Amino acid sequence: MAGSNGNKLTEDYIANYFDNIGLQKAEKLNSYKQTYTQTVMTTIGAPLLQILDKDGKLIKDFIYPDNFINSGSTQGISVSGEVNTQGLIISSKDELKNNKEKLNGKILIINKDIRSQVGTNKELMAMIKGCGVKGLVLEVDITNSRNPYKHLPISPYAMPASFYDNQNGPLLVSTESITFKEISDSAAQGNLIHIKSDYEPKEVEVSNIIGVIPGSDPKLKDEYIVIGGHLDHVGDNKNGTYNSGALDNASGVATLMEVAKAIKEAKEPPKKTILFIAFNGEEEGLFGAYHYVENPVFPMNKDNTVVINIDMVGSKNIMPLTLGNYSELETKLREDLFKYAKDLGMECTKAKESASDHTPFAERDIQALTLIHMDIENPAYHTPKDKVEDTIDQERIGQVAKLVLYYLDKKAYN
């Protein structure tokens, strides 16, 4: 996670790699690091969801994140606290309205149907505002075709620190349906629910890692091809597990590093300048990419820059490589990559995609896209299960590296 010791070690590893293979530092920077400050939602202690009997003895301890996840990206939710009290099963949307005394001091148990009727978590919070609710247990239907995830993925999306000044707000957990039924049935028998959330929003200093291969042609060296990928993931769960992020996104950074090495080992330097950027803070809200576009190390505009972002590539699950644009509008960059993929015999598809580091560039009219194997239904996505041996196929990740090199051969040398 951005700001963690592991994140800083990753920054150093990539910077040393860039140095070892001979990438240059950007003239505007003293090192390979472009340092900035961002907000992170730091896990201080392990999240808990438990069923206790009336005397407070443990009946069932649920597993994070297999059975439940916390949520902290809704205004009014508390991200740090502990509650141990009765659960109230909500049987209709109307129960959430004008029932201050009934809701006061309770953990509300809200199934998928009522949650759907209520709308967003923001709308739910508006309905129960001022009712003294201590907690919320929400059912997530991971079998619903409209749900892009078929499990409970951890999300560290971070808002400004002032957003979390909600010490008296309810704690919120989302559960899959089997866990939800266990909690509902147990609450109906009069047992207690114990929820603990232990997060802290922090401002941390982190870095993008930037290496440069300067263009050799006086007329073309001020045209830039950016190859990017985010180096961060979602951190330590503080319960003996951590999320190693092999597919998301060690795969993209490894591909970026291999492409950089191949270009440096080529007999001829490129005519155009190539920037290799390992972005930080993607998981919390594309912080590193936004920082870069606001502070580019070279002049950047729609006529002199294109961006290829690499995020989640080489999945073991067989699927086409997605060429993800920020909008529905086609770009020359995507047309070229689509053609080159076909030349290499790669199956690929086009889609609208805005949840990765190409977005801040595209918002400024720069041609940018993300290469991604869209394996988000994989139960390993944003969990401790995303390990190299379980999620990465060596041949498929190599195909993506070849595609990027093929593009550079066609565009950086001409």
CATH superfamily heading of the largest domain: Zn peptidases
Fraction of residues in β-strands: 25-35%
Question: How many strands, what sense, and barrel or not for the largest sheet?
Answer: 15 strands, mixed
Uncertain stretches: none
> Mean of the pLDDT scores?
95
How many β-strands, per DSSP?
15
Helix-strand topology string:
HEEEEEHEHHEEHEEHEHEEHEHEHH
Reading off the top of the CATH hierarchy, the class of the largest domain is best stated as Alpha Beta
How much helix is in the residues?
25-40%
Give the helix/strand class: alpha/beta
List descriptors.
alpha/beta, 15-stranded mixed beta sheet, single chain, 414 residues, 2 domains, 15 strands, 28% helix, Aminopeptidase, Glucose Oxidase, domain 1, 11 helices
Tell me what you see in this structure.
The chain has helices at 5-21, 100-103, 112-118, 121-128, 177-188, 246-265, 287-294, 332-343, 359-362, 388-391, 394-411; strands at residues 33-43, 48-52, 58-61, 68-70, 80-89, 107-110, 135-140, 171-176, 192-213, 224-230, 273-279, 305-310, 321-325, 348-352, 367-372. It is of the alpha/beta class and 414 residues long. The chain folds into 2 domains: 5-41 and 202-411, Zn peptidases (Aminopeptidase, 3-Layer(aba) Sandwich); 46-199, Glucose Oxidase, domain 1, CATH 3.50.30. The protein has a 15-stranded mixed sheet that branches. Strand 10 (224-230), helix 6 and strand 11 (273-279) form a beta-alpha-beta unit. The model has no long low-confidence stretch (mean pLDDT 95).
